[in-house]
Structure formats: C-alpha cells, structure tokens
Fold this protein.
Amino acid sequence: MRFHTEAEAAAVCDLVEEWQERYQRILGHRLVFASDEYYLLANRAFPDPESYEGFPMHEDGIGMARTFEIEFAGLTDTATGPKSGFFSWVDGAPHEGYRAPRTTGAAGGLLQIRPSKSAPIGVLTSTYGARILEPLIAQLGRTDTRIIAVPNKFFGGNIGVAGLMVGEDIARVLAEQPEGHRYLLPDVCLSGGRFLDGTSPDDLPRLVEVIATDGLALRAALEGSTS
C-alpha cells in the first residue's frame, strides 16, 4: 500500500464535499464526511466545526482535529471524548463502547507519573498529530514545551495517526530524549493499558504521563506546570 498523493487526497475532499451539498439539499444533513487524514494529505484547512454536524464520527478520525482546537482554545468546557464510532447506536452495545478502557490501574484512572512541574515538557504524538499540535503550542509562546513526533515504523512507515502509535516506536524516540523532563502521552494509543504491540507505558525508557486525548486535558497538563 502507498500514501495517497496530494492530488488524490484533494480529489477525495472535493468529491465528499460535492456529495455533502447534494445530501444536505435532499436529506437535510451531509451524510458523508472525509477523515482528517485526507485534509492533512491534501494540505487543506479542516472544514468549519458546523460542517461536522455534532461530530458523530469523532472516534473514526472525522473532526478530531477541529474538536481538539476548540477544546484547547477554551471555547468549550466539555471534551468530545471517545465514542464508539459507527456501532455506538446498536441496541445492546456495551456502555463503554466496543473499545476496551484506555488505561488501567487500581483507581481506574489515568496514569500520572510526574517529574518536577518546572521541568521542560515533551508532548508525544504521531506525525499527523504533530501537524495539528505544533501551531497550537506555538500560539502559547512557551519555550519550555516541544512536540515530539513519533514515526510509526511498526506498521511499515505509512501510518501517521496517534491512535496507532506503539510502545516500540515510542521507546525508540524517547531513548533519545533527556531524562527528567515531563513527557505527555495521549491515551488514545492505549487499550486496557497496553499499546497494540503488547507493551505498556511501564516498558518505556522514560517516565510518561498518560493524559486524555483532548484539548482540555492537554491545556490542563500544560497549565499545571510552571513556564
């Protein structure tokens, strides 16, 4: 398999938006959506928040970037949070959805292992995630915070989403990072406290803080430090 070219991704976006107009006119809603990945590949701005009609397919990577921006900017007090994607509407679907809980632990919460609050911060994310987070972090004007992109070699090098980051790749990148810094890891790459390659945050060469994958959680983690 190969990446879509920029022209191919742009053609997909154009086609989806064309059909959205038709469905909107006939059915009253857009019905079809392009994933965030297509807009990144096409080097296009994401659609306006209203175009996602409440973000019903947020878990499927449709509108995640827009909701993250809204949350990070403080324009909402509620995170969109994980949903169960297409199957969330099925009668009898598990209350927590078909995805296993992201993290584990005695308290059932997120793993919180923190160095000094004054330590520099590295935000771990995927290569696509870095393109979304870097301008948001730049707006803060903080010199103590950096984005650390994790290339996904485990799945062959052509995967760029945060949800498919694995411990092997994260460990390789973290091994080159200095000790004593705060490293923030989005929980979307975990299922039942483990990465898809079977490893866990405890196997990483640096201590990490696992935070919810939304803009509110990232903003709170950054505000809890001293710049």
User: Anything to note?
Assistant: The two ends are 43 Å apart (CA to CA). The chain has a mean pLDDT of 86. The chain is about 30% helix and 10% strand.
